[in-house]
Amino acid sequence: MSMYLKLAWRNIWRNKRRTMITVSSIMFAVVFALFVESLERGAGDLFIDNMTRFHTGFIQIQDYRYEDEPSLDNAFFYENSFSERIDGNDSHIAFTVPRIETFMLAAGAEQTRGAIVLGTDLSGENRLNNLEDRLTEGHFFEPGDGSVVLGEGLAGRLNLAVGDTLVLLGQGRFGMTAAGKYEISGMIKHPMRDMNNQLVYISLPDAQWLLSAEDHITSLLVTPEHVRYTDPVAEKLRAGLENDELRVLTWEEMMPELIEAIEFDRAQTRVMMLILYVVIGFGIFGTILTMTLERLREFGILLSVGMHRLRLALVVFIETVTISVLGVLSGFVLGFFVVLYFYLNPIMLGSDMEDLVQEWGFEPIMPTALAPDIFLWQGLIIFIMTTIICFYPTIKIFTLNILDSARN
Fold first, then answer.
1. What Cα–Cα distance (Å) separates residue 5 from each residue in 8, 26, 183, 311?
2. Residues 276 and 377 in one domain
3. What is the structure's pLDDT at 305?
4. What is the average pLDDT across 274-294?
5. Is the pLDDT of residue 284 over 60?
6. Are residues 125 and 191 in the same domain?
7. Please, which contacts does 112-116 make with residues 24 or more away whose CB atoms are closer than 8 Å?
8. Residues 213 and 282 in one domain
9. pLDDT confidence bin for 352, thresholds 50/70/90
10. Residue 60 belongs to a domain
11. Which range, 67-76, 158-167, 239-248, 388-397, has the best average confidence (pLDDT)?
12. 8-state DSSP, 226
């Protein structure tokens, strides 16, 4: 076998130009497949990340009635000991964020709009979604200081600026009237347009006082150390809270429509990738076909001087497989740097596309995903496809007419 490997290696570099063309065709096929797959994965991951971090969180603990009737009447009792109990439930829990959320009327001096009022713990909220990095004007509130932070879109609709007064009017817990006046301490630019046009952030103590819901919250967001721990952590929490009239929901359970949309998008990507593989396959086959036809005379001479067809076919097969491996490995190297560049420098969308994408809750960028399984599967698929194509010169050797090949 070592002799066959030496012969194959020498044959590969006997015609460097032909070898480099074949390796390059496989390499660029791998790079293109990696880029398309990582781009699709990156867009999906970005959408999920926005929805979980800015909306539902990865895991939520709620009163068991809250999902069917999202009312303040179905808030649950929350104190520090409960938070410590949750944190100690699983070592993979990074932190928790208490929230109390409701819908109220928000008014300025001239305009009134519906608003989502979100009372939260600022330190936990900032760890979850880097909220302070999205502050465009002013500063964030301190717990209990009687100020709020508005989304830029809502502030624009109400003709309000930092330092102005915002009036909130609605219904608190158990039908209590909820009304209050708050100074606007800052503005944020939320990445999701609908939220940017409706959101009011307020400290948790101020929100609980406003809504007559002291020591109560509507949800506790639990953030695992990594997204892969979401389901195991949720299962442990369910076991620990089964007697507390509380429900534990993952982001997949809270957003089934999003899961369906993601699956549909992935199905479209699979169809597109299938078409891409067909195009890539024919491109590689054309290169292998050309390489084989150029060597028919060589094959004929070797067979005529007594070389066994099986041995010649084995040497040629080793050659083509080695070229495939070189192409895939070089594609990995080049593809990694291409994907890494666009991971660090996401593609920015134009103005028209930016508006359309923000309507769907995306940030106006197209990032790539750096996931090992993308490289594994794309490299494996291209390698298998190339290996199958490599059987063509082998079959050609077994069916080759020595006299016809000598005339070429």
1. 5, 21, 78, 11
2. yes
3. 76
4. 79
5. yes
6. yes
7. 112/158, 113/154, 113/157, 113/158, 113/198, 114/198, 115/154, 115/168, 115/198, 115/199, 115/200, 116/195, 116/198, 116/199, 116/200
8. no
9. low
10. no
11. 158-167
12. S
Residue pLDDT, tens place only, 178-205: 999 999 999 998 877 788 889 999 999 9
Query: How many domains, in total, are found in the chain?
Result: 2
> Of 209, 244, 279, at which residue does a domain stop?
244
Q: What is the pTM of this model?
A: 0.69
Same domain, 91 and 239: yes
Confidence grade of residue 208 (pLDDT, cut at 50, 70, 90): very high
Say how far apart CA 246 and CA 75 lie, in whole Å: 10
CA distance 356 to 221: 30
Length of the chain: 408
DSSP, collapsed to helix, strand or coil, labels residue 169 as strand
Pairing state of beta strands 76-77 and 216-217? antiparallel
Within this chain, do residues 169 and 113 fall inside the same structural domain, yes or no? yes
Looking from the CA of 73 toward its CB, the CA atoms found within 13 Å total 8
Average pLDDT of the residues of the chain: 83
Buried b (16+ CB within 10 A) or exposed e, 140-154: bbeeeebbbbbbbbb
Give the type of residue at 200.
Answer: V
251 inside domain: no
Judge if 86 and 227 occupy the same domain: yes
Is residue 57 domain-resident? no
Lowest mean pLDDT segment, chosen from 213-217, 247-251, 297-301: 297-301
Residue among 370, 362, 317, 300 nearest 341 (CA): 370
Q: Cα dist. 347→257, 273, 362 in Å?
A: 27, 21, 13
Q: Is residue 164 part of a domain?
A: yes
Helix (H, G, I), strand (E, B) or coil at 106: strand
Q: Containing domain of residue 154, as a range?
A: 65-244
Mean pLDDT value across residues 376-388 = 82
The domain boundary, picked from 216, 244, 272, lies at 244
DSSP three-state, residue 33? helix
Residue 167 tokens read as 């009036």
Q: What is the largest CA-CA distance in the chain?
A: 101
Residues 134, 281, single domain; the answer is no
Do 87 and 31 lie in a common domain? no
